[in-house]
Amino acid sequence: MKLADLAAMAGVSTATVSRALSGHPSVSKTTQERIRALAREHGVRPNQLARNLRLRSTGAIALAMPLGHARTQHLTDPFFLALLGFLADLLVDRGYDILLSRVLPDSDEWLDRLVDSGRVDGVLLVGQSDQYDTIERVAGRYAPLVVWGVNRPGQRHLTIGSDNRLGGRMAGEHLTGLGRRRAMFLGDPAPPEFADRLAGLRDVTEAVEVLPCAMDPDGVYDTVRARLSAGAPPDAIFAASDVAAMSALRALTEAGLDVPGDVAVVGYDDVPLAAHTSPPLTTIRQDLVAGTALMVETLLRRIAGEAAESAIVPPQLIVRASA
Fold first, then answer.
1. pLDDT value for 235
2. What values do phi and psi take at 208, rounded to 5?
3. Please, how many CA atoms are within 13 Å of residue 237, restricted to the half-sphere of its CB?
4. How far is the C-alpha of 88 from the C-alpha of 292, rounded, in Å?
5. Furthest-apart CA pair in the chain: how many Å?
6. In whole angstroms, what is the distance from residue 155 CA to residue 185 CA?
7. How far is 286 from 290, CA to CA, in rounded Å?
8. Which end is more exposed in the chain, N or C (fewer Cβ atoms within 10 Å of the end residue's Cβ)?
9. Quick count: other Cβ atoms within 10 Å of Cβ 135?
10. According to the model, what pLDDT value does residue 150 have?
11. Nearest to 281 by CA among 257, 246, 241
12. Full-model pTM
């Protein structure tokens, strides 16, 4: 039996049958189930590869995390894990398979290889790292590319992300409101998102000590411990991420310093663990539910050849006991 025969039995077009059997979201769940039942009953097994070639579709989306600046970070980082989880659920619900990749760029061609592989219909990048120029170049020729990150004036590639500068400013205003005057920014200031968070803190106070460090937990802990042994501590720490803030809490506690009495600590992201640290972590929340939904919707519009724009997700100050 051909798809055309199945379509006649179901009272729909052949294209609808093809989309239903592939789980395409344009076909209702009820219709999909009815057509699949008919297909099973009559032994219809459409050739998936032939269908993909005919539709010029792979049915897959790449989820990639470029780590040019932080090669020691892993997909198990709580923030990345949460964001990737939301994206994966949304894509599976839309009928897509997922190609997951943690990229350690070895040349400027890593993104070209991904988009030209013929294995995916589009690409979602989690973060820009130090690969902004590469992403910008590829976006000039490859439309179905959406990035979680910052947006710069005149930028080609589409981004969805937190207003990082506003988030940094919110953290700074909260700390100065607590009477803190010797703030320290903890983290790598190079990546665009972290740079904007630092800039927001400096919008509020110019007296900011910057403590660069590798963004893995052990690297942050070792850096903070060395800094505390070298001189008087700051009275406030704004960490570039919650993971960095948690490592700072550990180092401060081991040094005999009280949080928030001696040092107030604010993180960024509001990962689930942030509410369960000791003390619970004050942080800047990124709305990943809204942000990931925007990423997927924006990518699907670009895959369909439709216009789409970047979007900014407002951050929110979450006050807990650490500051």
1. 97
2. -120, 125
3. 34
4. 10
5. 80
6. 27
7. 9
8. N
9. 22
10. 94
11. 246
12. 0.79
Query: Which residue bears the tokens 């650490």?
Result: 322
Gap between the Cα atoms of 268 and 112, Å rounded: 32
101 backbone dihedrals φ, ψ, rounded to 5°: -145, 130
Q: What is the residue type of 85?
A: G
User: Kindly report the CA angle at 230 between 228 and 231, in degrees rounded to 5?
Assistant: 75
Q: How many CB atoms lie within 10 A of CB 252?
A: 22
Q: Return d(Cα 41, Cα 35) in angstroms, integer.
A: 10
For residues 79 and 14, which has the higher predicted lDDT (pLDDT)?
A: 79
Q: Cα separation of 259 and 239, whole Å?
A: 14
Higher pLDDT: 321 or 23? It is: 321
Contact 242, 273 (CB under 8 A): yes
- Asked if residues 6 and 20 have their Cβ atoms less than 8 Å apart, the reply is no
Query: What is the residue whose two structure tokens read 């894509």?
Result: 91
Q: With a cut of 60, say whether residue 318 has pLDDT above it.
A: yes
Cβ neighbours around 61 below 10 Å, total: 27
Q: Which two tokens stand for residue 316?
A: 């929110």
The upper half-sphere exposure of residue 32, i.e. CA atoms within 13 Å in the direction of its Cβ, equals: 13
Cα torsion 220, 223, 228, 234: sign: negative
Confidence of residue 72 (pLDDT cuts 50, 70, 90): low
Domains detected in the chain? 3-55 (1.10.260.40), 60-162+288-313 (3.40.50.2300), 164-285 (3.40.50.2300)
Residues 167-210 have pLDDT tens digits of 999 999 999 999 999 999 999 998 899 999 999 999 998 889 99
Nearest to 74 by CA among 272, 214, 284, 225: 214
142-151: average pLDDT:
96
What whole-number distance in Å separates Cα of residue 65 and Cα of residue 167? 22
What's the rounded Cα separation, in Å, for the pair 265 and 235? 9
With a pLDDT cut of 70, the percent of the chain lying above it is 92
Could you tell me which of 284, 278, 295 has the C-alpha nearest to residue 123? 295
Q: What is the dihedral of CA 224, 225, 226, 231, to 10 degrees?
A: 90
Query: Does 1 or 143 have the greater pLDDT score?
Result: 143
